Amino acid sequence: MAVPDEPRTRHATLSEEILQHDYRYYVLADPLISDAAYDALLRELQDIEAEHPELRTPHSPTQRVGGSITREFPTVAHDIPMLSLANTYDEEEVRDFHRRVTELLGIEQVRYHVELKLDGVALSVRYRDGNFDRAATRGDGTEGDDISANARTIRSLPLRLRTEAPSPAELEVRGEVVMHKSDFAALNREREESGEKLFANPRNSTAGTLKLQDSSVVARRRLHVYMYSLIGSVPEVSTQHASLEFMRHCGLAVNPHTRRCESIDEVIDFWRTWQEKRDALPYEIDGIVVKVDDFRQQEELGNVARSPRWAIAFKFAARQARTVLERIEVQVGRMGTITPVAHLQPVPLSGSTISRATLHNEDFIRELDLRLGDTVIIEKGGDVIPKVTAVVREERPADAPPFSFPTDCPVCGSVLQRPEGEASWFCENLRCPAQIRGRIEHFASRGAMDIEGLGEAVIDALVEQGFIATYADLYALSVHREKLESLERFGSKSVDNLLAGIEQSKSRTLDRVIHSLGIRYVGQTVARILAGHFRSLSALEAAEEDDLVRIDGIGPRIASSVIRFFQNDETRSLVHRLHDAGVTAESDTVVGEDHPFFTNRIFVLTGTLAQMTRDEARAHIERFGGKVTGSVSKKTDVVVAGDAAGSKLDKAQRLGITIIDEDSFLAQLPESPQQENA
Ligand code: IVH
Q1: What is the DSSP string of 648-660?
Q2: What ranges do the domains of the chain cover?
Q3: Could you give the count of Cα atoms lying within 13 Å of 411 in the half-sphere of its Cβ?
Q4: pLDDT at 614
Q5: Out of 3.30.2350.10, 3.30.70.2190, 1.10.287.610, 3.20.20.70, which CATH number does the structure's domain 5-63 have?
Q6: Where are the alpha helices (H) located in 66-119, listed in sequence order?
Q7: Do 165 and 250 meet the contact criterion of CB atoms below 8 Å apart?
Q8: Which CATH class is domain 87-315?
Q9: Any idea which fold 510-581 has?
Q10: Residue 494 pLDDT exceeds 80
Q11: Do domains 87-315 and 510-581 have the same CATH topology?
Q12: Where are the alpha helices (DSSP H) in 23-160?
C-alpha cells in the first residue's frame, strides 16, 4: 500500500529536523531546543512510522532504542588496516620523534595536529550514500567484528550524514567509543548491588557493552563516540585538521580539544596542560596523539610494521603514588558485608589527597601479602576510589605484622560467616547497628526514597538516641516531634524539614519503594523490572519463585532472594508497616525500560488480536512503561485495533487518536527470539 504524500513529506521533514538537532547537540554542543521538545519530534516520527511502517528505514532516527539480538558477531575485513600507534611517556622520546620526522622529510619545521588520546574502544564506521551502513571493531587490525546493531544505539553516531555536506558514495571514518566516568560509576554501583562482577575501568565497560548480544541494553548504557580519522581521500581535504572539520560538517562528532602546533615545544605544552586537566573531562584520556598535519607528508613518511611513522601517542604518567599503610579498618555494609579499608599516609594523587583505599576482601589482602607499615603503590583508575595495586617488598619494616582478618563483627561482636562461594565475610546479625544505619541510609538515598534532610549524620543521631531502628520507624517519627526539637543538633525548623521530607517520600513510585527495601541483589534496574511486572507490592509479595524466574532479567539468585525477603517475618512486617503508614507505592508512573513509543503513553486494545493475547499485548506495553486502559478518551494516545474492532475504533477515529493495527504494534517491539518463532 502506497503511503500518502502528507505523512511521507512530514516524515522526511521530521527526520531532517531531528538530524539537524542531533548535529546541534552532539557536534556543536549547542542545542536549539529542549529535551522535551526533541522527544516530541521523535514521538511524532514514531507515530507516523507506526501507521506507515514502510517509512521506517534502518537509518531513521527512531532506530536508536536497539532491541535486536545478535548471537554471534560476523567477522569483517578492514580494507585498510586499523593501525596502532607507537607510544611513549617520555618528553625526550617525543623530541626524538620530531627529529626523525624532520630528517625524513628533509625540512626544519613541521606542523603537528595534536588531539586527546581517548581511552576507549576503536570503531570503524562505513556510510553508503550518506546512510549508516556498518560499524566494526578493530579486532586484530585486519579483521574485526561487525557490531552495527550495537553501534546504531550510540546517539552521537549519526545514522545519516547531513545533506548539506555532500559526501562520497562510500565514506569510512574511525574513532573512539567511550563511556562517561559518571555512567561507568553508576553502572558499577548497579552491578555491585545486584552481585555482578564489576568492570575495572570505563574502557573495559565500553568494550563489554559493545559486545553485548542485546542492543537494547547497549542503548541504555549511553556510549559516546568521537571520530578522529577519515579513511580514503575526499577532494580538498589535505590535512588532519581539515579532515576533522569535514567530518564535523558531515554531522559526525569530533572531539573539540585539539591544537595545531608549529613546534614540538607547543606539543609538549599541550601534553602538560591536559595531564593537569584530565580529571575535569567527563571521559578518560590516557595521553595525547601527535600527528603530522599534512597528508602528503604523512604519505611520504609511511608506516613501519603496524604503526605510522607520522604519529605517536604521548601518554600521561600512570596515576600512581607510593605511600604507607597505617592501619586496616573493617567496615560493615548494610547487607552485613565486611569490607577492609586501607588507611594510608595522606598522599597527593592526580588532583586530590588520598588517605583511604578499598582492599575488597580477605583474599585480596592475602594475595598482596599486605602488612601493616608496608609501603604500597596506589592507583586511580576510571573509578574515583583509589586501589592498592602493589606492595614494595624492599621497604617492608622488619617487624611488620601480617593482618589477621577479624572473626567477629567489629560493630556488634557476632561471629562472622563466609558462605560457600562468596568472597566476603558477613555479619549475619540483622540488629547490628552498622547494618541498621546502612539500611536506613540506603532507604533514604537519592536513588531510593530520596528523603531530603535525612543524611548520614542525622540517621546516626536518630539511631543512637533510639528514635528509629528500622526504616519503617521513620514514618512514626512525628510523634516524637517535641523530643526531637529538644535534641542538640535539631532546631524546630530542621525537624519540620525532616518530617516534611519523610511525608513527601510516601508518594514515591513502586520501583523506588522496591529498591529501597534493601532486598539483596535488587538494585535500581531489577526493582524497575519487578515494578513493571507486578504493579503492586502485594502482588510482588505473593509471587512464587517460578513467577519470578520467568521474568526477563530475573535469574534464580534474584528470585530466591526476593522470596527469602518476603518469607522472613521481620522484613515482611516492615513492608506492611510502610503500607500502613501511607507509602502508596503506586506504579502508574514510568516503570520498566524506556521506549520512545510506549513509555508514558496510554493505550487501548480493541478487537481480536491474531498473533497474541490481550494479556501479552498488555505485558509488552507495561514492560516499557506504557499503560493500558479500557476505554477510549481524549487522554488515550494509541488504539491498537485487531479484527472486528467496533465502537472504540469509531470513537478513536472521531477523536483523531493514533490507530495502529496488530502488525504495526508488533513492529514497534524490539525483536526478540520469541517473536521470530511466533
Ligand atoms: S589515531 C594510525 N587518534 O589509540 C593512527 N587514535 O594505538 C590510528 N585513540 O587504537 C589512531 N584517541 O583507538 C588516534 N585522537 C586519536 C585517538 C586514538 C584514541 C586510540 C585508537 C588507537 C589507539 C592507538
Answers
A1: HHHHHHHHT-EEE
A2: 5-63, 87-315, 320-395, 433-505, 510-581, 602-676
A3: 23
A4: 81
A5: 1.10.287.610
A6: 91-105
A7: yes
A8: alpha beta
A9: DNA polymerase; domain 1 (1.10.150)
A10: yes
A11: no
A12: 35-51, 91-105, 148-151
* Burial of 487 (C-beta count, 10 Å sphere; 0-12/13-18/19+): middle
What is the whole-number distance in angstroms between the Cα of residue 286 and the centre of ligand 1? 11
Cell 564535523 -> residue:
248
Residue 649 has pLDDT above 90, yes or no: no
Average predicted confidence (pLDDT) for the chain: 89
Question: What does the block give as the cell for 375?
Answer: 609501603
Q: Report the pocket of ligand 1 as residue ranges, CB < 6 Å.
A: 83-85, 115, 117-118, 122, 176, 228-229, 289, 308, 311, 313
CATH code linked to domain 320-395: 2.40.50.140
Question: Among 113, 114, 117, which residue has the most ligand 1 atoms within 8 Å of its CB, making it the best to mutate?
Answer: 117
Ligand 1 centroid distance, CA of 409 (Å): 49
Class of domain 602-676: alpha beta
The whole-number pLDDT of residue 590 equals 45
87 in Cβ contact with 315 (< 8 Å): yes
Instruction: List beta partners, residue 638.
Output: 603, 658
* Residue 618, number of CB atoms within 10 A of its CB: 16
Atom of ligand 1 at shortest range from CA of 229: 1
